[in-house]
Design brief:
The complex is a heterodimer of chains A (308) and B (253). Chain A has 308 residues and is of the alpha/beta class. Chain A folds into 2 domains: 220 residues, Rossmann fold (3-Layer(aba) Sandwich); 68 residues, Alpha-Beta Plaits (2-Layer Sandwich), CATH 3.30.70. Chain A is built from 10 helices and 14 strands. In chain A, the strands form 3 sheets. A 6-stranded mixed β-sheet of chain A has the order 6-7-8-3-9-10, sandwiched between helices. In chain A, helix 3 packs parallel to helix 5. The longest helix of chain A has 16 residues. Chain B has one domain. Chain B is built from 10 helices and 2 strands. In chain B, strands 1-2 form a two-stranded antiparallel ribbon. The longest helix of chain B has 32 residues. The two termini of chain B are 25 Å apart. The mean pLDDT of chain B is 88. Classes of the chains: A alpha/beta (308), B mainly alpha (253). Chains A and B meet through helix 2 and helix 3 of A and helix 1, helix 3 and helix 4 of B. Bound molecules: adenosine-5'-triphosphate and magnesium ion. Adenosine-5'-triphosphate binds next to helix 1 of chain A.
Chain lengths: 308, 253
């Protein structure tokens, strides 16, 4: 897959002196759906804003389809649609007019049939003559999507598109996203919810404190998520893992008072039974057992630890 | 040039104006009529003529300038401040348009509105006084230039302002006094000599004087100096806008 958006070593220091991006590298592939996960303040919005031209990067290089976002901004930006996190819309304006404005701003000639199609798709057609302030929050979110789609972008950024959106609309939204993907549009969305990434993304990126910690195909990440850990607390500390247990994927806790065994819940045999009998054979006394599903949070913690 | 974008901004901004057309129309008509009643009829009955022109007619150019300058400034400043305030500026910043296209769209719309108001006032004035315009083309040129340059100023204020108070501050604290003291309602020659000198530091004097010349063929200052003044003023505004563009001042963090 060719790269459509390339982010190389991008940094962003806000006027306040806060470093929101600390050397971000990210290659977004053409036609994929990439979900960016990260806690509040991770830098998701900052990264998107920097790619879209809303903030200027302090360092690094960003290109969209080979066009530099600074020196060749017209070509770069005309490919991008952005649905911002905030519901920023002119309150007194009619839905139709605000969508048409977006198309015009991107230099596209009038195309009423296309606008009508989008408004139908997003179930906004009945509201086309309503003022924005008369709409509910979810409808406003859809107006923002309509605006972003009005100029037929090749790359679409959705910054937390499902915040404050009900289940049904969420489903509609994923349908729209699926249609866009079928048309070859590249989609980048941010979210706090792993399930959301799971539902539609091809790849998942994790960002924290201004750094991209990983970008992986969804399947790989899900597999990691599907891992469980069995913590075996011991009567007496062990200095190292006995040779008899070398064939198991075991980790010794820092003080040697516990062994941690990771295993796949998805595989047919977990290997726990044999491990426990081998443990006894090796002469280790168990005090307690504990299992835990690894969560996104664990992955965060692991990743952050690796960083340090 | 992204002409589509300029047109889109212009049309969108003008739509705001047409939504409140009655209001946009009524308030200048009403305030002009009031000025005529108060200044023209009440005071004018005591002042015979200024520079050979009846007082009621004499104040028409000043009256138009007063409204045009304040309208242009407030329209343009509000036009660009509002998207900043409600956050819709994200769309301008992420669109494939240059800063100058944004300026042309907003300033063009603000200047058009101000021009409209100026013409409405002129038309209203015809109901009250007998007016003859000596240099119609110069009159129109002065009017358009003033609309444009003060819209540029308004645009700068709108970019600079970080709250509604600041947005009101400059028009209220600077423009209104300068216009009132700029000979809108009197001839500079009516002032004591010391004040005449001080007044010459007021840039608005040159604009009003030039505009009045286009009506009556008489002016407080040379018409070419007036033209130069408005040229310099426009140049300064353009310079500031260029600087804003270069530095991204208060628009792009
Ligand atoms: N204009 C600004 N000036 C200074 N600091 C800022 C600015 N905008 C964002 N930040 C800081 O940059 C960091 C990243 O913010 P950002 O909005 O990118 O996070 P995010 O990942 O989108 O978070 P969320 O999930 O809450 O939307 C935060 O610590 C935030 O406080
Ligand atoms: Mg965000």
């Amino acid at each position: 897959m060719p790269t459509v958006v390339s982010v190389e070593n991008v940094t962003k220091v806000y006027d306040s002196g806060f470093e929101a991006l600390k050397g971000v590298d990210l290659q977004i592939e053409e036609g994929e759906i990439l979900a960016l996960l990260g806690p509040n303040g991770a830098g998701k919005t900052t990264l998107i804003s920097t790619i879209c031209g809303i903030t200027t990067p302090s360092g690094g290089k960003i290109t969209v389809a080979g066009h530099d976002v600074i020196t060749d901004y017209r070509a770069a930006r005309s490919l991008i649609g952005l649905v911002p996190q905030e519901l920023s819309l002119e309150p007194f304006e009619k839905v139709m007019n605000t969508v048409k404005l977006s198309r015009g701003l991107f230099g596209k000639p009038k195309n009423d049939a296309y606008i009508e199609k989008i408004l139908h798709q997003l179930s906004l057609w009945d509201k086309r003559s309503a003022k924005v302030m008369e709409l509910s929050g979810g409808m406003k979110r859809r107006v923002l999507i309509a605006k972003a789609l009005s100029h037929e972008p090749r790359v679409l950024f959705l910054d937390e598109p499902t915040a404050g959106v009900d289940v049904e609309l969420r489903k509609d939204m994923w349908d729209v996203v699926a249609n866009l993907k079928a048309d070859g549009v590249t989609i980048i969305l941010t979210t706090h919810y792993i399930e959301e990434a799971e539902a539609i993304a091809d790849r998942v990126g994790v960002i924290n404190q201004g750094r991209i910690l990983l970008v992986e195909p969804k399947e790989d990440l899900m597999q990691r998520m599907g891992q469980k850990r069995l913590t075996i607390e011991l009567q007496d500390a062990v200095a190292n893992i006995p040779d008899a247990l070398a064939s198991y994927d075991l980790m010794r806790s820092g003080d040697g008072m516990a062994l941690i065994y990771s295993y796949e819940t998805t595989s047919s045999r977990t290997g726990i039974t044999t491990l426990l009998s081998d443990l006894q054979k090796a002469g280790l006394q168990m005090k307690d057992l504990q299992t835990r599903q690894s969560s996104l949070e664990d992955i965060f913690v692991d990743l952050v630890k690796e960083e340090a | 040039m992204n002409f589509q974008a300029i047109k889109a901004i212009y049309v969108f901004e003008m739509a705001r104006f047409f939504r409140t057309l009655a209001q946009s129309f009524l308030s200048p008509v009403l305030s002009t009529s009031l000025y005529f009643v108060v200044f023209g009829a009440a005071i004018g009955s005591r002042i015979e003529q200024v520079d050979g022109v009846s007082y009621a007619a004499f104040i028409v150019p000043g009256l138009i300038m007063l409204s045009v300058m304040t309208q242009a400034t407030s329209n343009a400043s509000f036009g660009i401040y509002f998207p900043k305030f409600i956050g819709t500026i994200y769309e301008l910043l992420s669109a494939p348009i240059s800063f100058f296209e944004i300026v042309i769209g907003y300033v063009g719309a603000a200047a058009t509105k101000a021009l409209f108001v100026g013409i409405v006032i002129l038309a209203t004035a015809y109901f009250f006084v007998d007016l003859q315009i000596a240099h119609p083309i110069a009159m129109l040129a002065f009017l358009v230039l003033t609309c444009l340059s003060f819209s540029l100023l308004g645009f700068i204020i709108g970019i600079w302002a970080q709250n509604f108070e600041q947005l009101q501050l400059i028009p209220l604290l600077v423009i209104t006094p300068l216009v009132f003291l700029g000979g809108s309602f009197y001839s500079i020659s009516m002032l004591p000599p010391a004040w005449q000198t001080i007044t010459l530091f007021n840039p608005v004097v040159y604009l009003i004087s030039g505009f009045r010349w286009s009506f009556f063929g008489v002016a407080d200052v040379d018409i070419w100096i007036s033209l130069m003044a408005i040229g310099i003023f426009t140049g300064i505004c353009l310079g500031v806008i260029w600087w804003i563009f270069k530095t991204g001042y208060r628009i792009r963090s």
